[in-house]
């Protein structure tokens, strides 16, 4: 039987893609307020409802699910958000807690910035304990799964006391790999041919090794390489080869760095470049989330 996901603060669905990779679970509903990510969700899951405003939800009227996922707003706990914590108007964790308390899923898989560990996380654990839930957590960098960027994030596996999810009961897909420093050992032949490898080395210099490794792990060369090799320069990482104005980051490249399928964000109709980059920047890197979930499930067996 296919497990179901209730996704809160869904973004573009990155954490849900991670859970699907490990467990084969499918979203039953979303709760995402922002218009741009909502368009992305509707594009990829047109039959799945989006309840939008978490602050007005009557969770007693929502279909029960096996798993609740959520990347609850990180601004209260991030440096960029000035770390106001629970005093921040954007502190929306209590709504996630209410959903867990009423819907009683088998477990919840949550994500936030690593800085949450030192600001507000003790309150989250206390709240979970108050409703009879336990939790395990881990921090993981995107670079540990081979991505060419750091992006350290906190992942939380929460569950009812005494009912910790077991990997063998839930995992239905191949394990997600944590690459770490082993990316250096990856054979780079076959990433995209000599022309692509040459272009990457010329353009990236000392970072070419990471770009090539991620291309192999992700299964696709970076969009900039494809565009340069085929002669299309309007979609390079920083725009035209000879830009007349300040170069701008190519959203397709940011999408690729996050380990998303090509076009997951950038081919959704009706999104501006700024909306694409904001959605990508706020999202979960699916391979990173999948590796974290696999790690947390395994830790319970040790």
Notes on the structure:
The structure is a single chain. The protein is an alpha/beta fold and 302 residues long. The chain has two domains: 4-177 and 284-299, 3-Layer(aba) Sandwich (Rossmann fold); 181-271, no CATH class. It has eleven helices and six strands. It has helices spanning 14-23, 35-44, 93-103, 121-130, 167-170, 194-204, 208-218, 223-230, 251-257, 273-282, 286-299; strands spanning 4-8, 26-31, 67-70, 107-113, 133-141, 152-160. A six-stranded mixed sheet has the order 2-1-3-4-6-5, sandwiched between helices. Helix 3 links the parallel strand 3 and strand 4. Helix 1 packs across helix 11, helix 6 (194-204) packs across helix 7 (208-218) and helix 6 crosses helix 8. It starts with a strand and ends with a helix. The model is unreliable at 178-192, 226-235 and 238-242 (pLDDT under 50). It catalyses: a 2'-deoxycytidine in DNA + S-adenosyl-L-methionine = a 5-methyl-2'-deoxycytidine in DNA + S-adenosyl-L-homocysteine + H(+). Its EC number is 2.1.1.37. Keywords: Methyltransferase, Restriction system, S-adenosyl-L-methionine, Transferase. The active site is at residue 74. GO terms for molecular function: DNA (cytosine-5-)-methyltransferase activity.
């Amino acid at each position: 039987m296919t497990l179901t996901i209730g996704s809160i603060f869904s973004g573009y669905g990155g954490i849900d893609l991670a859970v699907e990779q490990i467990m084969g679970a499918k979203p039953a509903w979303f709760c995402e307020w922002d218009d741009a990510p909502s368009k992305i969700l509707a594009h990829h899951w047109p039959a799945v409802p989006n309840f939008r405003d978490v602050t007005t939800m009557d969770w007693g009227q929502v279909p029960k699910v096996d798993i609740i996922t959520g990347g609850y707003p990180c601004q209260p706990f991030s440096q960029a958000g000035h770390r106001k914590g629970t005093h921040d108007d954007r502190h929306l964790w209590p709504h996630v807690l209410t959903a867990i308390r009423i819907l009683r899923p088998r477990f919840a898989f949550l994500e936030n910035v690593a800085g949450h560990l030192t600001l507000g996380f003790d309150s989250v654990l206390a709240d979970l304990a108050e409703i009879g839930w336990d939790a395990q957590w881990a921090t993981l960098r995107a670079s540990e799964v081979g991505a060419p960027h750091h992006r350290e994030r906190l992942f939380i596996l929460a569950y009812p006391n005494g009912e910790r999810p077991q990997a063998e009961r839930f995992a239905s897909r191949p394990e997600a790999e944590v690459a770490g420093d082993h990316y250096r050992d990856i054979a780079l032949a076959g990433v995209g041919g000599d022309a692509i490898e040459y272009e990457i080395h010329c353009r990236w210099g000392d970072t070419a090794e990471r770009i090539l490794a991620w291309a192999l792990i992700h299964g696709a060369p970076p969009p900039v390489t494809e565009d340069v090799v085929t002669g299309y320069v309007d979609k390079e990482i920083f725009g035209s080869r000879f830009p007349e104005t300040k170069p701008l980051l190519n959203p397709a490249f940011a999408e690729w760095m996050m380990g998303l399928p090509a076009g997951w964000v950038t081919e959704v109709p009706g999104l501006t470049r700024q909306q694409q980059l904001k959605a990508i920047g706020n999202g979960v890197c699916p391979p990173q989330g999948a590796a974290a979930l696999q790690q947390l499930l395994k830790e319970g067996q040790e």
